[in-house]
Structures
1.
Amino acid sequence: MNTKLIAVILFAATYICLLSFPKKRAHFALGSAALFIILGILPLGKVFFAINWNVILMIAGTMGVVALFIESKMPALLGDIIIEKTPNVKWAIIALSLFSGIVSAFIDNVATVLIIAPVALTISKKLNISPVSSIIAISIASNLQGAATLVGDTTSIMLGGIAGLDFLDFFVFQGRAGMFWIVQAGAIMSTLVLLFVFRKHKQSVSAMGRTKVTDFMPTVLMISIVVFLIIASFIPADSKPEITNGLICVGLFVFGLVWYLIKTKSPKVIFSSLKEIDLFTLLLLTGLFIVVGGVTEAGIVDDISTFFVNFGGGNIFLIYTLIVWVSVLLSAVIDNIPYVATMLPIAAGIAELMGIPPYVLYFGLLGGATLGGNLTPIGASANITSLGILRKEGYEVKASTFMKISVPFTLTAVMTGYLLIWFIWR
């Protein structure tokens, strides 16, 4: 049995187990990662580099800052304000998803979930309802808006690098509407889907007074994360470390710990904040990065990319359609970062051979790969993070529960973007 076939079987078995046994996802991911290494599919020397340390550090640092943020009672205040402004649970969920989308357009999706989820949890506890629906809505809305700007997602950053796009090009490019407006059209249509999905959530909500914030420093730290991540996006990739975003988040968390240590003169806040960092989620992501690295090393991602060129022939619409929808399907089960990194030069090569600008293929790839992760609970880091938050609250979410919300939302958003990108950039 050749290496490539072994990798395919191991990869398929891993994802079946991840979908079937949510409580053991980290164990299966790490076990599969170990097999990829032991079997020599991913050389030992490449294991460290297969892990996206920028994402790991960013999640860890943001989790720590979020712990301080929750302790300050700011999420409770935001929850009170949303309850005041919404007539029922349905609109509270919609408000949270829209808020999540706005934030996610400017910072990483995972960081967005970590920031907004505490607000949803606070609202759910005050209204004595399950937070599952609202957390899922926050997660998938954050993934959608990740393609809206240069800084919204790692895949957007990669596209900006290869296509030479800056921050403003995502709004207006070559005199035509950029990805930001295409994503907003998808957000409008998918929000209508959420309104239908949550149509039965008619429980009334009523204001219960506003919580008093005990300390504004964590809020300053959260805003600082957003500001510094945007500033970092304008620095050329070859002029900054690959883990820049992770260092920003961890650095601000450490600053917050030092601040509270000086203020309280007690190490209690350090231990309580470190305890809130979800090791289960971090280990799951670490294992998945290694598994995807093994699949990439085996050449499977390259084979998938070559398929587009051979099957599409000279029909640009067919090639575009394949790129969008195959990207959606593949991103539902594999990390979209190595996939997009592989497909961007392929898209450029196709465009060069056909003598056309590459942008319709670039934007189709970005939309399909970014949104496809929303289909399943393990298709995007933000989804994994959101389920980790729910798990800590005592809610184990089945794949079927997640997909009842995510599938109609995602297909609606993708179809909207698919049509608009073609008519604007064909």
2.
Amino acid sequence: MTERHAFRAMGTEIELLVDCGGDAEAQLAAAEAEFHRLEALLSRFREDSELSRLNAAGSLDAGPDLVRVVELALAAHERSRGLFDPTVHDAVVAAGYDRSFELVPPEDDEWAGAPMPMDRHGHRPMAIHVSRARIELSAGVRIDLGGIAKGYAAERAAEVLASAGPCLVNAGGDIATRGGSWPVGVETAGEPLTLELSHGSALATSGRDRRRWRRNGYELHHLIDPRTGAPSAGDLLRVTVVAADAVDAEVAAKALFLVGADRAADDANASGMPAVLVTNNGHTILAGGLG
């Protein structure tokens, strides 16, 4: 028997599924509580969160979850050669995403981009330093952990829920699993595609088609290209990837989205990472062993 529980956290709808032979009420409640606990620590929209206090003060003796997510973000920055960049906070805010998304006005006045500083090699310098529990930011730097925090929370909740049986956690498209085999529908430019997640694999989607708004006649979205400090203007509408866990899937989906369709397909094929790429002009590209 599969039990389902849904609620809202981290600005999105959360769905928990667990295949169990008995009552999983306690595990479902604990998995939901884990989402709310992590949101209270990692949200940039809560003034009292650890992340907000770090951004305000520039340094913090942080708890283990914030330290771990920052370390994951730093590793992702290195792995993606700077495409995944947690220091785009001010650029996201400048584009208009300065409050929880349901409160963002769909139309408003003109916006000002926030160019990101580059080093002499054309790379973004990383301005976050972690030493044990101490996190320090360079002067004027603030961080946004939205996507990677959601993937982390999905993985943590799946760990909690797995004690009841094979499970799936869907955090607004960031999906973590434990045990079992789970068919997951993926949007394409045409008919939906079904991918099977098994052996604890995960899935994430990054796209410009959900969280978007208009400023001075321009359509903007939340996926900032750190090379420009502005919402990405590439040729992809949406990217979905399958990876070993939800954090890796989240990072890979964003990095592939930012590089554009041709390079994204090449990168997914080279790494063997299953990816569904949907272009702005309505084409679907299957890469990384799909198709």
